[in-house]
Amino acid sequence: MAVRASREVVFEAPKDAILDALADIEAVPSWSSVHKHTEVLDRHPDGRPHHVKATFKIMGITDKEVLEYHWGDNWVVWDAKATLQQRGQHGEYNLTPVGEDRTRVRFDIIIDLAAPIPEFLLRRAKKMVLDVATENLRQRVMARP
Fold it and tell me: Locate the Coenzyme Q-binding protein COQ10 START domain: which residues (predicted)?
C-alpha cells in the first residue's frame, strides 16, 4: 500500500542554506522528532552523504533503514529498500529560488507500507512527517549561522 504526501512552502533563505541543512545528516535528529539516530555510511566525492543508516519512530512504530541519497544543485532525493515496516521509500526536496534570498521548497515522499494502517492514523502520520520536513527544517535553516 503506497502512501504519498507532499507540501510546498516558501523559506526566507537561499537554496544553498537549505541544502546545507539537509546535508548535515548527523544533526537531523536534533530538529526532526521522527529521526532517532542517523549515521553517514559513505559520502559522494563532493562530501555530501551518499548512504545513510537511520532509525525512525513515528506513531509508536520504529524502523531502521539504509537510505541512498543523490544531490543536485536544486534538489536532493533518497530511496530506501524494504525493511520490516515498509517495502520501499522515495523522498525528495525540490528547491526553486524566488528572488535573492527566498526559496520555494517542495517536499514529496512515497512510502510503500508492508501492512495496511487505518486511514485516521495515516492522516496523523502524514501531517507529522510534513510538519517535520518543512516547518522543522525551516526552523533549522533559520537557526544556522
Answer: 12-137
